[in-house]
Amino acid sequence: FRRVLFRSTETLLFYAARANHLVQGIRPALMRGEFVLCDRFSDSTRVYQGVLGAVPKATLDALELLVVADTKPDLTLLLDIPTEVGMQRAAARRGEDLADRFESETFGFHEKLRQGFLDLAHANPDRIVIISAEGDEASIEEEIWITISERFSLERGKHA
């Protein structure tokens, strides 16, 4: 029971933060005709709290409808990397600092997390594009640019 209560509370807190982000930043920027980039959005909640946290899909659907409504991403980029490589990169980036709650989870947790995101991408191929994050920064950046520019008919250097 405590785990369910914790996961449900955590989910509500994430959606409260998301609501604030939408009201204060995302929707005003969209109204000005700007592009908006986020490094996390409701897909993360679906995987972390839904797939791994056992919050029911119906609960997540209701919260997304209430909070996100029609402010859904036009494109989501999933930077995919084998679990062991991702964990090694996180540890290198963290250095001597302690791992946070999610980074300190087991390999199995991170493997399920990766699979949850991949399953979501396969279920939403019109919106979610999987990009391999195994290469160097320049090649990953190029793949991201190609994907974005093709989706939104952009030319390099013409948009900030």
Keyphrases for this structure?
160 residues, 6 helices
What is the helix fraction of residues, given as a range? 55-70%
What is the helix/strand order? HHHEHHEH
Q: Which strand order does the major sheet show?
A: 1-2
- Uncertain residue segments: none
Instruction: Assess the beta-strand content as a share of residues.
Output: 5-15%
* Shape verdict: globular
Cα(first) to Cα(last) distance is 49 Å
On the 0 to 100 scale, the average pLDDT is: 91
> How many helices does DSSP assign?
6
Structural class: mainly alpha
SSE arrangement:
Layout: H1 2-31, H2 42-51, H3 57-67, E1 76-80, H4 83-94, H5 107-123, E2 128-132, H6 137-152
Parallel strand pairs: 1-2
What can you tell me about this protein's structure?
This protein is 60% helix and 6% strand. The termini are far apart. It is mainly alpha-helical. The relative contact order is 0.12. A two-stranded parallel ribbon has the order 1-2.
Provide a short characterization of the protein structure.
The protein contains six helices and two strands; from the N terminus they run αααβααβα. With 160 residues, it is mainly alpha-helical. It is globular.
